[in-house]
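Supplementary Note 2. Why include the ligand at all?

Several targets in our set were suspected to adopt different conformations when bound, so apo predictions alone were not considered sufficient. For every target with a known small-molecule partner we therefore ran a joint prediction. The input for adenosine-5'-triphosphate is given below.
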Amino acid sequence: MEATFLSAGQALAHAHAHFRSVRRRLDRISLSGVAVVAAALAILPPLFGDSYTIARLSNAVFYLIVALGFNIAFGLAGELALGYAAIMAVSAYTSGMLNVYLGTPGIVNLAASLGVGTGFGVLLMLPSLRVRGWYFGLVSMFAVLAMPYLIVMAEDWTGGENGLVGITGLNLLGVNFSFNMIYVLAVVVFAGLWLVVDNLRRSTWGLMLTACRDSFYAAQACGINPTRIRMVVFVLASVPASLAGFLMVNAEMFANPGNYDMNLTLLILTGVVLGGAGTLWGPVLGVGLLAGFSFWVGPFSSYNAVALGLMLMIGVVAFPNGVARSTGKSIRNWMSGRMTDVRPSSITPLRRHASSGNANAPVVDIKRLTIAFGAHTVVKGANLQLQRGTFCGLVGPNGSGKSTILNAICGAVQAKSGSIAIDGRNVTGLPMYAVGGMGVGRTFQMPQLIGDASVLENIMIGGVGQTRKGLLGALLRLPSERRRYREIEQSALHAFQRVGLAPELVGADADDLPLGLKRIVEVARAIAADPHLILLDEPAAGLNRAEKLKLGETLRRLNSEGVSVVLVEHNVSFVQEYCNEIALLDDGLIAARWRDGEPQPTILRDYIDQYPTADHDEEV
Ligand SMILES: Nc1ncnc2c1ncn2[C@@H]1O[C@H](COP(=O)(O)OP(=O)(O)OP(=O)(O)O)[C@@H](O)[C@H]1O
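The joint prediction is reproduced in token form.
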């Protein structure tokens, strides 16, 4: 038995080392590419280009800088903020007007541009705390539509349609920046931000952002505070647009409302979506190509908007995930097949967390719990006390309130009255991320995974919300961040091992797994932070017999290791097979309880008798 376990551990260590080596090699190639592109952009045009070409190229670089911010917000975090042209305008006019009217030094203008532009960007994105997706996109788009009109309305200050004139050349800390020098500065800013986005993408913050993007509730269940994440995203996305606005106005020594209109927004949206939102190269290639196209047909040509709109429509249908994402996956698979000489890594022993709270208190203690949705009271004063070590099945007819009670325990639904305690700590009224942060694991009826992330990265999400979150470390890839990443990775590998997933799945994309394995990955994610309580919502639904067996045995093993399990389940055979305790919920109240070794109450037996055999479950 011991030998089998060790060899399974070694196989996992080997598979993980292979996965990591492929990633590292791809990252090295990718970063070399970034350096080559940045060097070529910085050196070649000022050496060989005429001033018209450099003017066009510098505009493309400004757009690329904005695209990097959009990639953080939309690509990584899923926030469809579209107000970047407006942020650029605010930043550009701030710097321009300070220069023209007050003659302030360049460094003051830079600070003001960044501060005002970013502040405006954050304000613009605040509605995202209430509305998401396309609704939020429309709200933020309004600012882009309104901005040129606002600039014209304030023409006494902004110069209106004729533009703001009289801006003197940029002087930063005693250095006068010529047009070519501003271009090179813009390329340096672009390359630096590109590296920062890459650092972010590969960091524990990157995991948190993509978790909020793809599995909003799962992220909260893992202890991630979505409001905090979004506020950080708003700042990170607004800074590049503010910098681009500052550089643009100082390069052109002129500000015009036409520079910050819908065409710019459309170009960036189309480029990022077509290229591959969330990837390192996609947005840069996409926006770079479209900017090239736009300059070819002429920046003010009416073909611009039509062509961009058409490309967006066709591109979204033809490449729903962007060109770079599918290409990147093919390259990764190809490289993975070629790399065979990988030295196995080791998996360090797991440091078990001492469980928090009062060890003698019930693991779950629900008292007179009432929950209502509007006028509809679903849970009507339920009491349920579960001791540590329980493997409790919560059963009952459709609509009796089972999922609602599970959601209330983990903070997804708030009680109207009554109380809920976990390990003796009152959690009534706490938001979901706070309960998740206490180390309560949770799975969902429909697995909520990041489809294009690996199985291991998905499991790591379970650990990221539980630890200190150093943003600067993530942006700059500091040693503290690398250490944190490695620790969370090790915990995830242990969770991977504990649920008995096949080692070769460690680097597989979650999207490529069958439903049964997705559920097991969710269980692994739920135990990644080594919780002592996990809550599962219909884990056996839709699984075939073999998958149910694997899931049941996994849960039984975890329970024997001291993890308390509460599951909502319709499959009574599954509940009878694995649970040591059953609670029957009927019309919002606990109607019957049973514990291993006790006779079953008649009402529970009658309920179970409606589902006569395991074969019946198979058909349901
Ligand atoms: N967010 C919500 N808003 C309004 N009503 C809700 C909400 N969530 C649940 N309900 C209602 O509460 C009742 C109980 O739902 P719940 O999902 O808890 O039942 P359940 O016992 O888990 O049922 P099932 O086994 O069918 O999933 C149902 O009538 C449902 O429509």
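The pocket of adenosine-5'-triphosphate is lined by residues 373, 378, 396, 398-404, 568, 570 (CB under 6 Å). Residues 2-48 form the longest helix (47 residues). Comparable summaries for the other entries are listed in the accompanying table.
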